[in-house]
């Protein structure tokens, strides 16, 4: 294959210094000033790691649809996974949701897929064990997960059940002496191809209640197959899981809390809130990439950042980012104060994800034809936004949750 001549013009590349203090770039109203000095210091350590170790590898990993396993140790060294539960060398009580939201936004700002990996492990998997497990089960599994020596996944969604998976769950659990037998299928399960533990949700055939079970990956009868051909969140290793006569001991059934899907409901309320932070961080990354590109790309003898139409796009993007940050921040404060509801988290997710879709589209528009190239950054955000828009509750389902809260009438149909 012939090589391009040495004087072939190179495209401008976004030149954002990811390790620098970036609050002033996309956090236009300085919401990060609400963090404590200790929280800010931790966030800056995270930012340095993302700049030095994550940002250089994500484009290639995205193109290959591979998860860079070397990142696990780096995240473990940051000691972040156990913070929601008061676990870790630097933790003596659960971290504030406000701080954890900024962590999610910071990771998504560099790569939405990597944020999804971390959220599935630390939020969904660990959160289910924390909310639904006994104290003995928490001590058995969570410390190793906090150190990221054991990676978790969350098996809820099914081939025929997405929004209505709890009511229409087809995976079953049958008691057999001191064991349970699980049968069914799960789909879109993030981290599943390399997770050590998968929290599987299944309907108890005797009581008709949905229960959670911690299933080690080597358990006989469980088959895990990576989903291929994705056009979004390609770094996330989503899988189909087939459960055929999978036997797990009774002490792997989450037996704390209510012992039912109600425990997962509280977890989903928090992770839905975190999804609003992920959508916000994705906007921040796309906006910053577009801004940097506009400052370097020259047409008609000057940077396109000096053109009125380009500035209009940038201001619209920044407005979306700022509004999304404001909603995510306030929802986190409500959760920290014990007042956050399903409707609050649902509105935050719906709003931030909808604004995200606009923002990444405008970023791609600003970068023009070059916007479809991975090397210009915005293409990855543009593609990944489509998955973020749908998971943790579609826009329509979150709208109905909020609609019921404000009208007192349920529009859900069975």
From TrEMBL:
Belongs to the acyl-CoA dehydrogenase family. Keywords: FAD, Flavoprotein, Oxidoreductase. The keyword Oxidoreductase applies. Its cofactor is FAD. The lineage of its organism: Bacteria, Bacillati, Actinomycetota, Actinomycetes, Pseudonocardiales. It comes from Actinomycetospora succinea. This is Glutaryl-CoA dehydrogenase. Residues 266-406 form the Acyl-CoA dehydrogenase/oxidase C-terminal domain. Residues 153-244 form the Acyl-CoA oxidase/dehydrogenase middle domain.
């Amino acid at each position: 294959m012939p090589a391009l001549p040495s004087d072939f013009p190179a495209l401008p590349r976004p030149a954002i210094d990811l390790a620098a203090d970036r609050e002033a770039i996309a956090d236009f109203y300085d919401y990060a000033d609400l963090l404590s000095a200790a929280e800010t210091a931790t966030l800056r350590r995270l930012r340095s790691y993302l700049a030095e170790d994550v940002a250089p590898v994500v484009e290639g990993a995205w193109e290959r649809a591979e998860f860079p396993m070397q990142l696990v140790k780096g995240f473990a060294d940051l000691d972040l996974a156990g913070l929601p539960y008061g676990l870790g060398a630097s933790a003596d009580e659960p971290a504030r949701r406000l701080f954890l939201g900024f962590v999610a936004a910071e990771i998504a700002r560099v790569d939405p897929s990597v944020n999804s990996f971390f959220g599935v492990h630390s939020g969904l998997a660990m959160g289910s064990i924390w909310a639904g497990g006994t104290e003995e089960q928490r001590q058995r599994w969570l410390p190793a997960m906090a150190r990221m020596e054991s990676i978790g996944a969350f098996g809820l969604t099914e081939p025929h059940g997405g929004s209505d998976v709890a009511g229409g769950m087809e995976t079953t659990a049958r008691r057999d002496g001191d064991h349970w037998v699980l049968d069914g299928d799960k789909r879109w399960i993030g981290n599943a191809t390399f997770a050590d533990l998968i929290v599987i949700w299944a309907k108890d055939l005797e009581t008709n209640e949905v229960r959670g079970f911690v299933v080690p990956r080597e358990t006989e009868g469980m088959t895990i197959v990576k989903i291929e051909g994705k056009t979004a969140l390609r770094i996330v290793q989503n899988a189909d899981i087939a459960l055929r006569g999978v036997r797990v001991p009774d002490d792997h059934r989450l037996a704390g809390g209510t012992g039912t899907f109600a425990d997962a409901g509280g977890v989903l309320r928090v992770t839905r809130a975190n999804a609003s932070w992920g959508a916000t961080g994705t906007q921040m990354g796309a906006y910053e990439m577009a801004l940097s590109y506009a400052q370097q790309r020259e047409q008609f003898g000057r940077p396109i950042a000096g053109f009125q139409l380009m500035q209009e796009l940038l201001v619209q993007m920044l407005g979306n980012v700022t509004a999304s940050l404001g909603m995510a921040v306030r929802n986190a404060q409500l959760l920290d104060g014990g007042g956050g509801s399903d409707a609050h988290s649902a509105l935050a997710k719906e709003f931030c994800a909808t604004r995200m879709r606009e923002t990444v589209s405008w970023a791609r528009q600003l970068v023009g034809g070059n916007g479809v190239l991975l090397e210009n950054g915005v293409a990855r955000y543009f593609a990944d936004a489509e998955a973020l828009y749908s998971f943790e509750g579609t826009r329509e389902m979150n709208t109905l949750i909020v609609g019921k809260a404000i009208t007192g009438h349920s529009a859900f149909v069975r």
